[in-house]
Amino acid sequence: MKTINVVAALIIHDGHIFATQRGYGEWEGYWEFPGGKVEPGETPEDALVREIREELATEIVVDSYVTSIEWDYPVFHLSMQCYLCSVVSGSLTLLEHEASSWLDRNHLHDVKWLPADETIIGKIEELL
Fold it and tell me: Which of 24, 92, 102, 124 is the one with CA 20 to 30 A from 86?
């Protein structure tokens, strides 16, 4: 099974975490933490900065590593590294996603998460 290496930004501000909703593909309508694929030769941190710039027109700084998720989807294995990040500039403008939301601890379960992202909701509750 093919492995896809991705990174996810956990952007927390005032007790809320930023989440995005996919607007395309097999998982359209599901929610996720923004990020994307790590390209050959990139560090995970560099990939995350690039992906957030490309998808959300926002500059971030990667603050710290939080956790890694290993998840088997039907046609590939996902290896996802998750990092706490802070916005440096920009306003998290949606360029590829259907919707976004700042979710507080009490509303984390109100959206339909991608399976891999759902596995870290307990960790997010601790961070909030």
Answer: 24
Residue 71 lies in a domain: yes
Give the domain CATH number at 12.
3.90.79.10
Helices (H) and strands (E) in the chain, counts: 3, 7
CA distance 74 to 10: 25
Mean pLDDT by 10 residues, the chain (128 residues): 96 96 91 96 97 97 97 95 97 94 96 96 92
Domain presence at residue 84: yes
Is residue 71 within 8 A of residue 80, CB to CB? The reply is yes
Q: How far apart are CA 22 and CA 45, in angstroms?
A: 22
